[in-house]
Inverse folding.
């Protein structure tokens, strides 16, 4: 009977554990998770803050008891793994108040990521929060319930989702972004449209000013945020400045890291140690576009990486081919999606690209309730192969879904022009915006 | 200066004419259209009937005057082309009450399709209508305004769209379908779910009973429909039994027809006559799945075929690669989409296929407003290459868009499993239904 240990009970860890159970019914499987929950969806936290989701626990798909009972997976929450002895194939963990040592045949590292915090003492200002765990959700909701004035440091996906959440509750919200634009993983032209939508909802944006310090309010409870532009006072502050891979345990095991500073794995999710797999926000994967290493800490990738790790941990042979890096969010009614490389990123990588941006409608012009949708395609100048896309407006999710598959398939503009985006008046114009973008690019 | 004549002012004809003008600015372009409108969207008629679109003219994208003024395209409406003399390169047309003869250098045949009507005299029963032209929309709306009891013969896309339209107006609606199921281009299992949704809205379905006759009501105004099951009385009847290509003019020019009885064209949309192109609902095209000939009278195909014909008519070199045959509609809240082959059709074509059907959610489980979505994938048993998909429920449009691209790219289940359907709680669960379907198929 083989013994599997999984460190981390998020998407990747529980996906790996479940896959192991399915493929190796007689094995023992131990999962250690530092927080109080496993199988949780941090992506739902902004909607819990907004009040669209009633209980923070609703964001949890399955409980430890479920895994124990239905899948015979032994889950220990509030349990911290202290170190890995790769030579002895054992881990040391602090669980139920005592330190234990556990041997493994196969280890899966799914330690995830942590919010990036430039200075640890910023958190000591009080009323300063990151958005990562169910516990964060509960704390933020309670501690900022009566607040009126919220500062959000970092205007990426989580930043604008939290901005929607707080502004929908009637709070005054300011997004502070060090870069010259919010949504740093979009191009400036598309990000400008997001900025307009954000400002139109009364959210203030301060761009191009890096935060230098965050302090406890002196004369009144609250937080002072200091930037090059001066000092601002908030009742509460959210830090959403991106995430970094949790690799401390990997280092104790002597595992190789990649150029992105996440754990290096092969396409079977195997680390540099033949008994240790890794999956999720702690690993470096391959871009399906450039072929090079990328760090893409997204939930669908984490789930599939866990699935692949669990398959191969049990003697299977499944390759994780890589990612095109699709993402989507919304700010109120505006869906905001992207896949692949931005024009900026492609040029920075030395690629000779061109782009086309078009504005279309998300329904037939005569059908009631339609609205504008913006599509930007980034493609190689010579071959016209598409390497990236951005979409803004209602219906962006569906367009980015199709474009993600097209980019994965290495479609050029001609292939995309002839693709079968289905048409009916309530869903798209007969010339869908994606097809028009391909046509305009082709003809230019 | 070259002279181009286009017969038919629908999607394909106007797309071809516009493309010709763009590529050959100095040419003369004449378009002849039998109805009173060009550039119209018959797909919108059910929504006009329902009252979602105020004026039938709203379904017209551009008027003849627009084409004349902005694109210097000479459009003659209410003008019937009587014959083509391919040897003399001329057509005879009846326009403005007189017969004219016009020479062409290049002719584009975009004569479209006509509703299939088994017996012409059915129309003489009065209050019996087909759904094709703007004029039909106006007539149906006026003549059936006060009707209470509508019969719809044929339960395909147009049939259920018209059923929604009339039932939303509070009328009693009966769909009569000769086949054992409505939506004959879906598999029986998915069609059964559409039937349930239709019946749940109070629309009656009579299946497996072919219509034998349609007569004028004897004792009261209205229509009697006779099937093997007996006679039913309606205030009005819609015939939506599919369409057939209009090939009469093609025959006068001696053009070859294909095995589907539509006009045969090569991938440049050139007919068997080197001076005649054809595009739209009158042509036979190639399936990207089987490589064989198919008849796919859909608006996006017609538009692109017209674009290709116009490109090549002006000395260009653009191939229409074929179609995966994506389609979408809705019945109230249920989106209903399909692409490629049904399981039934694939087996009938001798293909060794398997299928997987799964039921998922269209949003994260905790996000408010989510609902069920059903995905069926049809794939080759050995290679696992996907040859068809069906989707039912809100969000089907986006899933079918992605699946259409995947089928065009000849994805197998593994490729699809690793595709980048983007995730955020308001749009999909972290394991989207499409990905789950691929996974279940892979594992089976």
């Amino acid at each position: 009977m083989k013994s599997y240990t999984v460190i981390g009970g998020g998407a990747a860890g529980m996906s790996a554990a479940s896959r192991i159970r399915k493929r190796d019914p007689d094995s023992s499987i131990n999962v250690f998770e530092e927080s109080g929950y496993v199988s949780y969806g941090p992506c739902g936290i902004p909607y819990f803050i907004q009040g669209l989701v009633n209980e923070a626990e609703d964001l949890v798909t399955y409980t430890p008891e479920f895994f124990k009972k239905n899948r015979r997976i032994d889950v220990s929450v509030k349990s911290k793994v202290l170190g890995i002895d790769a030579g002895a194939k054992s881990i040391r963990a602090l669980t139920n108040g005592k330190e234990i040592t556990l041997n493994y045949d196969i280890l899966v590292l799914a330690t995830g990521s942590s919010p990036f915090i430039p200075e640890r003492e910023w958190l000591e200002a009080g009323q300063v929060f990151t958005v990562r765990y169910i516990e964060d959700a509960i704390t933020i909701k309670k501690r900022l319930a009566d607040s009126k004035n919220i500062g959000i440091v970092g205007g990426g996906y989580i930043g604008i989702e939290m901005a929607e959440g707080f502004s929908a509750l009637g709070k005054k919200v300011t997004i502070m972004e060090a870069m010259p634009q919010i949504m740093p993983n979009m191009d400036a032209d598309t990000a400008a449209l997001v900025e307009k939508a954000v400002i139109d909802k009364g959210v203030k944006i301060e761009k191009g000013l890096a935060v230098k310090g965050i302090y406890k309010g002196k004369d009144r409870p609250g937080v002072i945020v200091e930037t090059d532009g001066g000092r601002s006072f908030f009742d509460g502050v959210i830090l959403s400045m991106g995430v970094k891979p949790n690799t401390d345990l990997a280092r104790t095991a002597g595992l190789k890291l990649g150029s992105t500073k996440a754990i290096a794995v092969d396409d079977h999710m195997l680390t540099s140690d033949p008994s240790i797999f890794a999956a999720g926000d702690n690993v470096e994967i391959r871009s399906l576009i450039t072929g090079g290493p990328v760090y893409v800490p997204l939930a669908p990738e984490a789930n599939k990486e866990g699935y692949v790790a669990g398959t191969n941990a049990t003697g299977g042979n499944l390759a994780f081919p890589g990612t095109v890096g699709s993402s989507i969010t919304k700010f109120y009614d505006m869906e905001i999606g992207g896949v692949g490389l931005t024009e900026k990123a492609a040029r920075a990588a030395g690629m000779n690209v061109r782009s086309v941006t078009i504005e279309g409608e998300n329904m037939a012009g005569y059908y009631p309730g339609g609205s504008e949708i913006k599509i930007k395609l980034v493609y190689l100048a010579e071959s016209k192969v598409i390497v990236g896309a951005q979409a803004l407006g209602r219906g962006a999710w569906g367009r980015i879904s199709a474009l993600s598959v097209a980019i994965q398939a290495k479609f050029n503009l001609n292939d995309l022009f002839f693709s079968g985006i289905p048409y009916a008046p309530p869903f798209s114009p007969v010339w869908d915006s994606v097809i028009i973008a391909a046509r305009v690019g082709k003809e230019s």
